[in-house]
Fold this protein.
Amino acid sequence: MFFRLRHIKTPALALCAIAILSGESPAYTVFDATGAAFEFSEPPTVVSLTPSVSESVCQIGAEDKLLGVSVFCGYPASLAAADPKAEKIAAALNGKKRLGSFFSPKYEEILALKPDIVIMPNSVESSARNKLQRLGLKVFLLHPDGLDEISKNAKILGELFRLEKSAEAEIAAFNAKIPPKKPLPDGAPKAVFIFDNGYAAGAKSFAGELIERFGYKNIATQNMPMWFVPQGEFLLAKNPQVVFIAARDENEFSRIKASLLKKMPKNAESKKDFVFVALESVIIPSFRLAGANIPKANPQKTGDSKN
């Protein structure tokens, strides 16, 4: 072995050759969303404390490296029609240890699992991140939750787990169903996206971004909160043509719609398009959004629509 290696003049190649001949995997470096460098000799074991991250880890095929997840992580079987991997992802997440949430992690249990890294979005409340780091855990940060960030984070995760091709395939499939970002045309129908808890999607939220991708002008402006409760005066003033309602089923959709109509003029039902969107398809900013079936904007259309 020495005879062969002494002819290799590049130090990096020599180290690589030594690692291969000794049966060790060569080290590789991955940068998280903040630019911090992490070096691994093999794909790391991880803990994820947010559903969006946990789902993406499983979506690209790295579920065996996932030691534990948030109490909020899960994948509904109802998404199987839109995602052939739904059952596999659901089974993988259901079998993982629950480690609290990103607001209140179970620190001792995380330490006991001895993960190589803990993965969190950069937007997560920093006290939990700081405590994890003080306990000696490495925290790998991804981009904050957002529509564009789904693909960006999947690319980073592909590099992290050495599953680049799988990540690229998932990103391509997702982008094929979500229109690219582009300026809205003149006359784009005004819309509001309301969830089952009464909150509406602000312009900076992933759900607000989603309806704009499909050609709707969100009545929420950029200076408004990411999520807000729309009051009757606001709805009257902005007068949306389309009202998206994220609900668990049609009964809940009808209940929310009836509540909203009380805040609107008497003829609102005939003049607005109330659109049912399955809550489970849009509640997490992950690849599951590809199954939301948001209809493309059609300013001429009125009346109820269900998808």
